[in-house]
Amino acid sequence: MKVKDIVNNIELELDRDALIQKMKDGRQVDLILKEKKTDDIGYLTWDMEQWSTVDGKRYIRTYQLEGRVLSEYTSHNIHDLKAYFLPDEALSVQLS
Q1: Is the dihedral of CA 44, 50, 55, 57 positive or negative?
Q2: Closest CA to 7 of 37, 27, 31
Q3: What is the pLDDT of residue 35?
Q4: Which end of the chain is more exposed for a tag (fewer CB within 10 A), N or C?
């Protein structure tokens, strides 16, 4: 998939595993979603996700809605990423 590196101002062709490796290397992956998502209980709605790693084993997902950073976050392990880290379903993907 095409990934815009906004730090180096270049476009890369990376797959999901390469994006996970970029997180391990200290980069943040931003997923701009095609439409707003809401959690199961209707508490949280977002249209952008920022993914990063704490230590290569624990991953943090933060959220934005219409350009506003939300205070909520979720933490995940490498196995959780199969179900929750979905760059293929995003409208666009950025490295920051």
Answers
A1: positive
A2: 27
A3: 96
A4: C
Cβ-Cβ contacts under 8 Å for 70 (sequence gap 6 or more): 44, 46, 62, 63, 64
Pairing state of beta strands 90-95 and 2-5? parallel
Can you give the length of the chain in residues?
A: 96
Separation CA 27–CA 21 (nearest Å): 9
State pLDDT tens for residues 29-40.
999 999 999 999
Distance CA 6, CA 25 (A): 16
Q: What is the C-alpha to C-alpha distance for residues 85 and 33, in angstroms, rounded to an integer?
A: 12
Q: Count of H helices and E strands in the chain?
A: 2, 7
Q: Who's near 29: CB < 8 A, 6+ residues apart?
A: 19, 22, 23, 50, 51, 52, 87, 93, 94, 95
Instruction: Average the pLDDT over 62-72 and give the result.
Output: 97
